[in-house]
Amino acid sequence: QVQLGESGGGSVLAGGSLRLTCKTSVDNGYRGCIAWFRQAPGNGRRRVAVMPPGAIYATYADSVDGRFTMSRDNSENSVFLQMNSLKPEDTAMYYCAANRGAYCAESPTTYQYWGQGTQVTVSS
Hints:
Layout: E1 4-7, E2 10-13, E3 18-24, E4 33-39, E5 46-51, E6 59-60, E7 68-73, E8 78-83, E9 92-99, E10 113-114, E11 118-123
Parallel strand pairs: 2-11
Antiparallel strand pairs: 1-3, 3-8, 4-5, 4-9, 5-6, 7-8, 9-10, 9-11
């Protein structure tokens, strides 16, 4: 069983930055597919960034590409989401998720492990 825990959310003004952290329970870092999702009120969970197994670079949703950067530090058993140039439409609960497989599907139903989420609120 993999446990995930997010931190780093908060309230910022538009144009500001936040750095989210996802701590995993796996020593030396989780080696499977790991991703960041977000869920705004009334919407489903949508993937914003994903790092496949063995990858050092992430891929991003079009809505955040160029503003968000996902990275990992296996020595800290953590992955990060650096969010810059934040917009009010980035307001959501952000979740870290992982799946056991090697294929990183976009659907949240394919991810077996989830953190509790951290709230990000961006005001104009």
